[in-house]
Design a protein that fits this description.
There is one protein chain. This protein is an alpha+beta fold. It contains 3 helices and 9 strands, in the order βαβαβββαββββ. Strands 5, 6, 7, 8 and 9 form a 5-stranded mixed beta sheet that branches. It starts with 8 loop residues before the first strand and ends with a strand. The mean pLDDT is 93.
Length: 152
């Protein structure tokens, strides 16, 4: 039997938390949820398993939900670990997806805001579900974003 749970947030570790938060606010309309965080000390070290951990950042409300909807938690850690090359097939969390009205226009806006392209936009029929138009892109720090639009 599953536990009683409610989805609250996804964390993105950033090299520049302010720049990455600005990107998600400008491109996707995510809304900052104060206060900004600057957290360190024994409890954070114990929870993360990282000696001398310091986390700075903020939460951004995801678009399409009310004031109690899920957030992106964008934190910058000290000390920082090296990030491996971005790849859609790396085990673990691969990407976040945003439903958009126009995939090509959303990609244009994303690129102008400092994001990057991974592949090309494709349109594909998914039997029993509908037709999806989608593309994989990255935010300015290389995290993968899927832009998608479904039609019947």
């Amino acid at each position: 039997m599953p536990i009683s749970a409610r989805y609250t947030h996804t964390n993105i570790v950033a090299r520049d938390w302010r720049g990455l938060a600005r990107f998600y606010a400008e491109v996707f309309g995510c809304v900052p949820v104060p206060p900004e965080r600057d957290i360190s000390g024994r409890q954070i070290e114990e929870a993360t398993g990282i000696p001398r951990a310091r986390l700075r950042g903020m939460h951004l409300r995801l678009p399409g939900y009310g004031p109690d909807g899920p957030t992106l938690e964008i934190f910058q850690y000290e000390p920082e670990e090296h990030k491996p090359k971005t790849a859609a097939n790396r085990p673990g969390v691969s990407h976040i997806a945003f439903a958009v009205d126009d995939v090509e226009e959303a990609m244009r806006v994303l690129l102008l805001a400092g994001g990057g392209a991974i592949g090309r936009t494709v349109r594909m029929d998914v039997p029993g579900v509908g037709t999806i138009t989608f593309v994989y892109a990255t935010d300015p720090e290389g995290n993968i974003i899927e832009l998608q639009n479904w039609s019947k």
